[in-house]
Design brief:
Layout: H1 3-7, H2 13-18, H3 27-42, H4 53-65, E1 69-76, E2 79-87, E3 96-102, E4 121-123, E5 126-128, H5 136-151, E6 159-165, H6 173-181, E7 189-193, E8 202-205, E9 207-216, H7 232-249, E10 261-269, E11 279-288, H8 296-311, E12 318-326, E13 329-330, H9 336-349, E14 356-358, H10 364-369, E15 375-377, E16 392-394, H11 395-413
Parallel strand pairs: 3-6, 3-7, 7-15, 8-14
Antiparallel strand pairs: 1-2, 2-6, 4-5, 5-16, 8-13, 9-11, 9-12, 10-11
Helix pairs in contact: 3-5, 5-11, 9-11
Length: about 425
Amino acid sequence: MSANERDQFGIDPKIIRTQREKIALTEENKEALLRDLFDLIAIDTSNPPGKELQAAELVRSKMASLGANCILQKFAPQRANAICHIPFSQPEDGPCLIFNSHLDVVPSGEGAWTYPPFKPTIIGGRVYGRGACDAKGSLAAMMAAVRLALQAPQNLQGELILTAVAAEETGGLGTQFWLKSRREDLRPSMAIVGEPSGLKPVIAHKGVSRRKLSVRGRSAHSSDPSQGRNAIYPVARLAIFIEELNEKLARRTHPLLGLPLVSANVIRGGVKDNVIPDYCELHMDRRRIPGETRDQFDRELNEWVENMVAMDPSFRCQIEVIGDDKEPVVISPEEPIVRAAVEAIHEVTGQRETPQGFVAATDMSFLVHQGNIPSIILGPGNLAQTHIVDEFVEISHLEQATLIYAYLITRLLGPKRLSG
Ligand SMILES: [Zn+2]
């Protein structure tokens, strides 16, 4: 990106490095952080079905009591984002810093939890519970950082917006809804997506496209298969095609994100072991790296269909999109938000991290592609601790994340930087 674009935020990297006012958490801050996380985990926002309204209301009321201007954005029954605006002394003079994290969690599943998923428990310096790591830990740390900023808003400029969004785990409807509502606001913005990145700055993730291909056949008694049309055979061929496609994809790679991938993950078909199946479907998941086009997977599947039709002109199938496609995303490591994050992490942890890629797809994709907002992923906990039984987050990570977010607020919205 050019120096001119960097200047839109008025941030001079040299100045960023000179702001070294120490930020610390009091015992009261630490208690409030844990209380917010406990309150969030205790509200079951398993998605599906979602039902984030109560959690959104909790964030709204907690942030409003601190002085933020908050609204609930309802976009479906029981589903809402909490959007909290914190304008500082001269909002028009500074950029807009967006904190984004999600209220919904994946279902707790059938596995036996040692600690009940919706009764947060502290054991050995960790908070256990569904969403502790993905992503209520990030959200609670962001709320704690907002609290710090509102307690001591010394000369902060611009605006901070906390977006606690719904429906991230099923396609990112919440963030997209907020982005649509924000179309008029063209102020230079940057965003931090709170997801478990191990407190590392993430500037890229893969895109994802999911498809269901289904085949209708004709049933018959299995004593005479020629009377029917077996729907399983073509789908079995498709499964092999997907396995081979995955091997072919390994010829390409991305420096931060590695290989593009594809996998066949659900197969359904057949009714009885003596009936020729008249229906079969396969669900597939394709992970795209930057440079792979939006319709890449559809073209690969169409190629397979054309080959099938070439062999049997009467072959028919149906391809459906599952969920919303997410585009792969990568931003420049020179973006002010990235440089400031590297400095803030160094300040708090002593580690100088290089910006990296993330294996999972997140709302960062929508913020960058639909909102045109330079965004990073940064949050406490690691992906390996998420979507599992006995999900947890380290309390030390939560506290460090809070400090990192707080440093980012003062660095990016801090006293007016020198111009030129
Ligand atoms: Zn998440």
